[in-house]
Design a protein that fits this description.
The complex is a heterodimer of chains A (about 200) and B (about 700). Chain A is mainly α and about 200 residues long. Chain A has one domain (about 15-70, about 75-195). Helices cover about 65% and strands about 0% of the residues of chain A. Chain A starts with 10 loop residues before the first helix and ends in a 16-residue tail after the last helix. Chain B has 15 helices and 38 strands. Chain B is about 25% helix and about 30% strand. Chain B has about 700 residues and is an alpha+beta fold. Chain B folds into 3 domains: about 5-55; about 70-85 and about 440-600 and about 695-710; about 95-155 and about 195-215 and about 260-435 and about 610-695, no CATH class. The longest helix of chain B is centred in the first third of the chain and has 33 residues, at about 25-55. The chains are: A mainly alpha (about 200), B alpha+beta (about 700). Chains A and B meet through helix 1, helix 2, helix 3 and helix 4 of A and helix 2 and strand 28 of B.
């Protein structure tokens, strides 16, 4: 009677996979967040474009004040508050679009991983996984490109004097998301389709 | 969950050959569903994006630099809006005061106690404007009835004003106030709710108790015949009646304190007294014999010239209250005596008009009335004055008694004028009218219909756009030129010229207080690094700032500016055109709120010529002191040499007869005083106009804002 192969769980490997996910996707989320939170007020303050009423209506109540006209002759404090609200609303929009792209990209990547965690035909699984990986990466790039386009058309294009800081803050997330996905695809693939020297490296 | 979905996900529960769920098949279905959802989401996103970008109004494109559109000047109170509103036309009905001139010239009364001429006979009465001859009476009586008709359905109070006067001391002794105009009016009231029958009495009465007799025993005190409640001061009725009885007695006794004296400059006359006591809440219709108007100008203690009627109307605030003065001139028929003419007082009265006799048969041939002018002032709101004059015109047109011609048919009556003999020909009733109101030179503001502001660069293509700003005033947005600098510009403000009906034109060549002022500004004055420290410092100073990228732009409110200057104000093609020059180099980014202002005074008002007042058909005449001297000297000579009527040369029996170069006791016979014209009419009209236009009034108050974009 053939000896049944015992699959031993390697918690060490799972930790490294988790770490890889956390680092990759965390950085993809953290960098845009830090940029909007700390860099924006000093490098891009006051550049928020006027938002359409439809977009403004989607914002939290605190940021909807951006659409309300300032009272005539508003004092310095009121003006400052209005400017802050306006900037806040814009950052809500950028954060929202970036977070959506991040979430969809992560979900897509996780679905791929789940799909190949327990392949039915292990011998052909690696080939199918590579083919699926390429399709998924294209999809994720497309997804982020679409989100970036939405952001650009919805507001960034109205910003005058756009420079390196603008593009860096608004579009970094959409570049980091596919890169994070790519990293996770290649380094944190399921054991069934990964190997030490295989296309999908096993950590 | 629907049946299809249940079936769909049920597939995921299928068991494969090894007894494990077929994960691959399930994953395929989930992936397919996700792909479909993604596709739907993408399509929805595209649709939503399309709706956001194109279905809604285009969101404004942020311009380069700090977003100055977030800034704004303080709200503008806009006083021009209320000032531009049309003043109340004063269409409300009001009662009417008829002020009837009761000076002796009106009634053909010879003020001298001993006269060489009869006043009346059985068939005729030489009652001046209110003569009668058989059943014929003067046009004046018909005109008074037409006045009453023009007054409409209102209560008409008739006041008699003449040469009697009541001094302040006398009134005080009678327990009356001399400063109370209502008391003065009550004292002079001779009828309330006047009917046409009142005027007929004047023509039919005796000369001694005539309406026009000085201290008339019948007409000076009418209070006992009136209901005290109809007076303005019912409780003073008894005291006033006693005072008037004292006037009658005083005049009869020859007490000159009850007779109006000429005053320091010879200006005092019945008209001036009446104007001082008008009730400005009513429509006042004042008949005036111009021959009874004395001097109109004089000088104060310092020698400064005084225009008495200008001064009086200004003090009473007639035009300030929005009232106007209608000036009406009537050519009427006259038969009577005149013992004064303007400032001239004659020893022997002038004879102007008489009954023509057949001296052989000693019978009356015809009525030799002569033309004389009577003025009427109508003082009230513009609407009421216009309505009265219009109604009067209608009444006159319908009045058959004013038709036809009167006067000597065969050249029986002559007089000397301009060194020539004038033979009087039959004449007809004529009248003219004009209204003198505060000149509506116009009020031009940003609310004026058709006002336009245009900005033009002096050299390069301009980047200026004029819109109506949030504050409701015109806003000019100036964008910099290609080099980032603002070019010099010219602003032009055009107003369609207001078309007034007050007979005035505007002379803008010498406008007073024309200027351009900055009301509010909010200008970029300094730029700091966008750091938390700088932001805190700016906020603690209460300064307005806009953070933009890594810079903090600080704005100063109400900063001084010299970028704008008024170049010219002119009239062009029916438009009032104001030209401003703008120095681009002195403009700062931000907002300017500017007011273009100019005031107009009487100096800017050119009154159009009224043909019958100061034009080529003028009926006005003036009297010089030299003429007065000649007339008085000549009439004194008549008194001296020909007191006895029998000895009076025939040529002097009427209007001093025709022109003669023969001397009369070494005196040249002067031209007859021009009683056939309206004495002082032009002077009075000029003074009324001066009073109407004397105040400084706002002509232009144009407020606009300028936005200078960040370069």
């Amino acid at each position: 009677m053939p000896k049944t192969a015992v699959v031993s769980l390697k918690y060490h490997n799972r930790f490294k996979v988790l770490l890889c996910y956390a680092l990759a996707w965390g950085l993809a989320l953290l960098l845009p967040t830090l940029g909007l939170r700390y860099l924006y007020p000093y490098k891009l303050a006051g550049t928020a474009p006027a938002l359409s009423q439809t977009i403004t209506a989607l914002l939290p109540e605190a940021a909807q004040g951006a659409s309300v006209p300032l009272p005539l002759g508003a004092d310095a404090q009121t003006l400052q508050a209005a400017l802050n609200t306006r900037d806040l609303a814009w950052r809500y929009i950028v954060s929202g679009v970036t977070a959506l792209a991040w979430t969809l990209s992560l979900v897509w990547q996780l679905l791929w991983r789940v799909r190949f965690s327990h392949p039915g035909q292990a011998a052909r699984a690696a080939l199918r996984a590579r083919r699926s990986y390429r399709i998924s990466m294209a999809g994720i790039w497309a997804l982020n490109l679409l989100a970036a386009a939405l952001l650009y058309l919805g507001g960034v294009r109205q910003i005058a004097d756009r420079g390196l800081w603008d593009y860096l803050l608004y579009f970094t997330g959409f570049v980091l998301n596919p890169l994070a996905a790519m990293l996770c695809f290649r380094l944190a693939a399921p054991p069934s389709v990964s190997g030490r020297h295989a296309f999908f490296r096993r950590l | 969950m629907s049946m299809k979905a249940t079936r769909f996900f049920a597939g995921a529960a299928r068991i494969n050959a090894t007894g494990k769920p077929c994960a691959r098949a399930a994953f395929k279905r989930v992936a397919l569903a996700a792909a479909l959802a993604l596709a739907c989401a993408a399509l929805s996103s595209c649709a939503a994006l399309n709706s956001v970008l194109y279905a809604e109004p285009a969101t404004q494109t942020t311009v380069s630099g700090p977003n100055l559109s977030l800034l704004s000047l303080p709200a503008y109170d806009d006083p021009e809006a209320s000032a531009a509103q049309t003043q109340d036309a004063g269409t409300a009905y009001s009662n009417v005061d008829f002020w009837l001139d009761a000076t002796q010239n009106m009634g053909g009364i010879n003020a001298n106690t001993d006269s060489m001429y009869p006043h009346k006979g059985r068939k005729y009465r030489e009652g001046g404007f209110q003569y009668h001859y058989g059943n014929t009476s003067g046009w004046y009586e018909s005109l008074l009835r037409d006045f009453l008709s023009a007054a409409g359905e209102t209560h008409v109070r008739t006041l008699r004003y003449g040469n009697e006067t009541l001094s302040a001391d006398y009134l005080a002794n009678c327990g009356l106030s001399a400063d109370d105009a209502s008391v003065w009016r009550d004292l002079h009231t001779c009828d309330v709710d006047t009917t046409p029958g009142l005027f007929s009495q004047f023509s039919g009465e005796d000369m001694t108790g005539s309406f026009y007799a000085l201290g008339s025993s019948v007409w000076v005190n009418r209070l006992p015949l009136l209901n005290a409640s109809d007076l303005e001061n019912p409780t003073l009725s008894q005291a006033m009646s006693s005072a008037l009885d004292g006037v009658k007695a005083g005049v009869a006794a020859g007490d000159s304190s009850f007779v109006l004296q000429a005053g320091r400059d010879g200006q005092q006359c019945a008209l001036l007294s009446a104007l001082e006591n008008l009730d400005l809440d009513k429509l006042s219709v004042i008949t005036v014999d111009p021959a009874s108007v004395r001097k109109t100008v004089g000088a104060d203690a310092q020698g400064q010239p005084i225009e008495y009627y200008t001064q009086l109307l200004a003090e009473r605030g007639v035009f300030d209250k929005g009232l106007c003065v209608g000036v009406l001139d009537f050519q009427l028929d006259y038969m009577g005596q005149m013992s004064s003419f303007s400032t001239a007082t004659f020893s022997e009265p002038l004879i102007w008009g008489r009954v023509i006799l057949n001296e052989k048969k000693q019978t009356f041939l015809e009525l030799g009335v002569m033309p004389r002018h009577m003025l009427t002032l109508v003082i009230g709101t513009r609407a009421r004055v216009d309505a009265f004059i219009q109604a009067l015109g209608t009444a006159i047109d319908a009045d058959t008694s004013l038709k036809g011609q009167r006067g000597p048919d065969n050249g029986e009556l002559t007089y000397a004028a301009d060194g020539q003999t004038v033979t009087q020909q039959p004449f007809g009733f004529e009248w003219h009218s004009t209204v003198i109101a505060r000149p509506s030179v116009g009020y031009y503001s940003q609310h004026t219909q058709g006002a336009a502001l245009a900005a033009e660069a002096t050299e390069s293509a301009d980047g200026a756009q004029t819109v109506t700003g949030d504050t409701g005033v015109p806003l000019v947005s100036l964008t910099p030129g290609s080099g980032g600098a603002q070019p010099d510009r010219t602003f032009t403000v055009r107003f369609p010229l207001a078309q007034g009906d007050d007979g005035t034109t505007l002379d803008v060549s010498t406008l007073g207080n024309a200027s351009i002022q900055a009301i509010n500004t909010l200008l970029l004055t300094k730029t700091l690094p966008n750091t938390a420290q700088n932001l805190a410092a700016v906020q603690s100073d209460g300064e307005t700032s806009v953070a933009y990228r890594d810079q903090l732009y600080v704005f100063e409110t109400d900063a001084q500016t010299s970028a704008f200057s008024l170049k010219n104000i002119a009239l062009e093609n029916g438009e009032l055109v104001c030209t401003l020059s703008v120095r681009g180099s002195e403009l700062k980014p931000g907002y300017y709120r500017l007011r273009l202002s100019a005031d107009a005074t009487g100096a800017q008002v050119a009154w159009e010529t009224v043909p019958w007042i100061d034009g080529d058909q003028s009926v006005s005449t003036s009297v010089t002191d030299a003429q007065v001297y000649d007339w008085e000297t000549f009439t004194a000579a008549i008194t001296q040499y020909d007191r006895d009527a029998k000895g009076l040369p025939k040529m002097f029996t009427h209007a001093w007869g025709p022109y003669t170069d023969k001397l009369y006791h070494s005196l040249r016979v002067p031209d007859f005083p021009p009683v056939y014209k309206s004495v002082h009419l032009a002077e009075l009209a000029t003074q009324f106009r001066s009073a109407a236009a004397s105040d400084q009034s706002a002509l232009i108050r144009y407020v606009f804002e300028v936005f200078v974009a960040y370069p």
